[in-house]
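Notes, Module 5: Reading structure tokens.

Key idea: the token line is not a picture. It is a compressed description, and you learn to read it the same way you learned to read a sequence, by spotting repeated patterns. We will look at two proteins. The first is printed below with its tokens.
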Amino acid sequence: MNLDGFLLPGHVSIMLGSAAYGFLPDAGKAAVITGFEPVDVLEGVLLLMEQLADGRPAVAIQYRRAVRPRGTHGRWP
């Protein structure tokens, strides 16, 4: 399987939020914000593969215990 997408860093995304990465699905790229525990990374890969299999690129948040769409600064729409 050809995987073409991004696993995005959870620690940066806590502040930025998922909306900061809105340009990725606009460019046809799948993306998942993940934590750093092994199970987080594995689930992130699974979510990325599901996006690719469905042909619907998006920015998914696997690391929901810390990341919100608008981040901590609320600067993104």
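Here is the second protein, with the sequence above and the tokens below, as before.
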Amino acid sequence: MSNRRVLMLAFFAGAMLSTMFTACGTNDSAAQQARIDSLSVQVNQSYKPGLGEFMMGIQVHHAKIWFAGKNGNWPLADFEVGEIKETLEDVKQYCTDRPEVKSLPIIYPALDSLAAAIKAKSPQQFEKSFIFLTKSCNDCHETTHHEFNVIKIPDVPPITNQVYTPKR
């Protein structure tokens, strides 16, 4: 469980306890409010990943998909597509202050196409869908005025201590 979620749970637990103590006749509302305020400050100051950190993760997954698919490791490629989808959900949750989040739907058709190619275990469909995903990433960067951030089909694996061929 993330640190932020733990703090949020603690905040709500403190609020519940405060309500219970007040209901039970405890008249120490100032102390309880101070505890709630303290927990609220901790939640607001807890670590929150930035959009760039999420995008770096997506870029690694993007490259791993390429090498997995080119080697016919369909389970790994499928897993990495899921990781990108999960990361995009995290972006929506944690980067609500970023206008770029509105452009994320650009990516979903390409991810769906890639997932279908992986499910079909079709190398030709995979390559076409991967190119579509890469283009969609760049289209999103253009739309959000980050056109200087160009994604391409990778030349070398991003992680060199991972096997990209299927386990037999």
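Summary for the second protein:
- The longest helix spans residues 3-23.
- The CA atoms of residues 64 and 157 lie 7 Å apart.
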